[in-house]
Design brief:
This protein is mostly helical and 187 residues long. The protein has two domains: 11-121, no CATH class; 122-174, no CATH class. Helix content is 63%, strand content 0%. The protein has helices spanning 11-28, 33-48, 54-60, 62-71, 79-90, 109-121, 123-143, 154-174. Helix 2 (33-48) runs antiparallel to helix 4 and helix 7 runs antiparallel to helix 8 (154-174).
């Protein structure tokens, strides 16, 4: 029988998570984008093979989309947009986070909470990437080609440009609703 627990993070709770992210991000500054994404992917794999709760596993699944956003060459994130995603992923590179990962069953709870915070912060990026993947897959199906062969096509570049522009507009207009200054606004 499932049991539901819900809680609300206060402004000071969020600030604690943001401060942890900034602390961990500063230690991850010497890592390359590839190292950051590979470490985040390894964490995801460790969680899948751990004794973590279903709650943690289901929330951490969103980390895979963040990794894909940073590594998908056809999506082509760069500059500030890539920095935002890498800043988010850097939290998952260090085992010394808010709750030590070695604590049985609950060691990844802070990671699951952080994924939710990050996904809220990166909502414009996630929406745009999701639409891009759907568009790419639909065009690949329509044209009868493998999506990888379509990466260099003009239609893909144009659609990516449209979605990147909309993502930035949504980020600018959505940031006014945030009550706590997040690490993402300092990039």
């Amino acid at each position: 029988m499932p049991f539901q627990v819900s809680f609300e993070l206060s402004t000071s709770d969020l600030e604690r998570f943001y401060q942890a992210m900034l602390r961990i991000r500063s230690s991850a500054n010497c890592k390359t984008p590839r190292q950051i994404t590979e470490r985040a992917a390894r964490l995801l794999e460790k969680i899948e093979h751990s004794d973590s709760t279903d709650f943690i596993r289901s929330h951490m699944h969103q980390l895979e989309t963040l990794i894909d956003m940073a590594t998908d060459e056809a999506w082509g994130l760069s500059g500030e947009d890539l920095d935002r995603v890498l800043t988010a992923l850097s939290y998952f590179c260090e085992p010394a986070d808010l709750i030590p990962d070695t604590i049985p069953a609950l060691g990844y709870l802070d990671d699951a909470i952080m994924v939710e915070i990050i996904c809220d912060e990166l909502e414009p990026e996630l929406q745009a990437y999701h639409e891009f993947v759907i568009y790419r897959d639909a065009e690949a199906t329509r044209l009868g080609s493998d999506a990888m062969n379509l990466q260099k096509a003009d239609w893909l570049a144009e659609r990516r440009h449209q979605l990147h522009s909309r993502m930035r507009r949504r980020r600018r207009t959505g940031s006014s609703r945030k009550k706590v200054k997040s690490p993402f606004s300092w990039i």
